[in-house]
Design brief:
59% of the residues lie in helices and 3% in strands. The chain has twelve helices and three strands. It has a three-stranded antiparallel β-sheet. A hairpin with an 8-residue loop joins strand 2 and strand 3.
């Protein structure tokens, strides 16, 4: 059976990993096993046994806890469970965990975990999540705000040649805009208009003209923000 030390030959290399990343390493190892059951100690003890242990003994506590954190993350994610046919020490992959067969499967899962589908408007989950999962973060952000633009135009019944910031200012214009929340004070309506116009100007317009570059975590946050704006626009249309 392959050991963690074969992949992570030093304690610092293991401790540098997040629970999520170390958990994905473990999943790859579980998939490679001929035996479908496994116990936590199988992945910790080899670091400190034998004539020349790969890790020094003074790292045992920190390494054991790091592996346990990764193990618990896999349980929380529903990727492994206690094997119901064995003692409580034994675990096995869940049906969800068994789908992660290749590095590409695992990377796709990691990407999707950063941007949970449960937080997304259904249209963004359909159109944007696949782009994000492929690593096309800038394109995914642009598409999210394009979807917001198209939706606001449709809900506000505005012409196709009205786009971007101007579209948002017209749709949410205090007291007269189709999507203005007229049951709130004018200052709040103004703030809502500026929120949508600013978001469109900041997140959609720049990628239309140049490469802006965006990291995975930032892209996930921005797409969730676009999802929130999309939900609020649809709510405003029915109030």
């Amino acid at each position: 059976m392959a050991q963690l030390a074969d992949i992570l030959p030093t304690a610092p290399s293991l401790l540098a990993l997040t629970p999520e990343d170390l958990g994905m390493v473990l999943v790859q190892m579980f998939q490679a096993r001929s035996e479908p059951r496994f116990v936590l100690s199988d992945y910790v003890m080899p670091f400190y046994t034998g004539d020349t242990p790969p890790y020094s003994y003074n790292t045992k506590q920190s390494v054991t806890r790091a592996v346990a954190e990764a193990w618990q993350w896999l349980v929380t994610e529903g990727l492994i469970i206690q094997d119901p046919e064995q003692s409580a020490d034994y675990y096995c992959l869940t049906r969800k965990g068994r789908t992660l067969k290749t590095r590409l499967d695992i990377e796709a899962y990691r990407q999707g975990h950063v941007l949970p589908v449960s937080l997304l408007h259904p249209r963004l989950a359909e159109k944007v999540l696949p782009m994000f999962t492929r690593g096309d973060y800038e394109v995914a952000v642009f598409q999210a705000f394009k979807e917001l633009e198209v939706t606001v135009r449709r809900l506000a019944k505005l012409p196709a040649d009205l786009v971007g910031v101007k579209l948002m200012r017209e749709a949410f214009r205090p007291e007269t805009g189709s999507l203005a929340q007229k049951d709130t004070v004018v200052a709040e309506q103004q703030a809502m208009m500026e929120l949508y116009a600013g978001a469109m100007g900041h997140f959609k317009n720049p990628p239309s003209h140049r490469d802006v570059g965006i990291q995975r975590s930032a892209a996930a946050q921005v797409i969730c923000f676009a999802s929130y704006l999309l939900d609020q626009a649809e709510l405003a249309a029915i109030l």
